[in-house]
Amino acid sequence: MDQERNMDIEKESTTTLDYSKRAQWLRAAVLGANDGLVSTASLMMGVGAVKHDVKAMILSGFAGMVAGACSMAIGEFVSVYSQYDIEVAQMERESGEVEKEKLPSPSQAAAASALAFSAGAIVPLLAAAFVKEYRVRIVAVVAAVTVALVVFGWLGAALGKAPAVRSSARVLFGGWLAMAVTFGLTKLIGLHGL
What we know:
By secondary structure, the protein is an all-alpha fold. The protein contains 6 helices and no strands.
């Protein structure tokens, strides 16, 4: 009887997920998507402040998405590869052997980071893509980004077991502030021809 119970406990312990690692990846994905959303929306709002043309706004957003995704992927690759090197050295010091299955994957981290950034960046691009009228396009971008910011704030709170309203409000106001500052400063510079 005790032997069966011990076997059940061993079976449970080998099949349980490591939620701390899962939470780190999910948190990184939410932050990457939020970064893509706010960066791209702010860039599009800044260009939209001085260029009312839909093409200029979309091209700037697309360029921002590609540049941001590449930057995030390279940064994540370098960061995780440094962690990889440290963990390999630690394993060699402790046991003399390297357990590959316990090591992080720099390529996987880079791909996930680029994908998360792009997923966030696509929201303002899609919101602006089909609207020719300038004022309606600006409102569409702000509305779509607002919804996404609230969702990302809620998701971050759910992952961190934090208060959802406070987290969503913080993410929302931060995103609005970034878009407003970018729009305002670009408009100011555009008006004065600097």
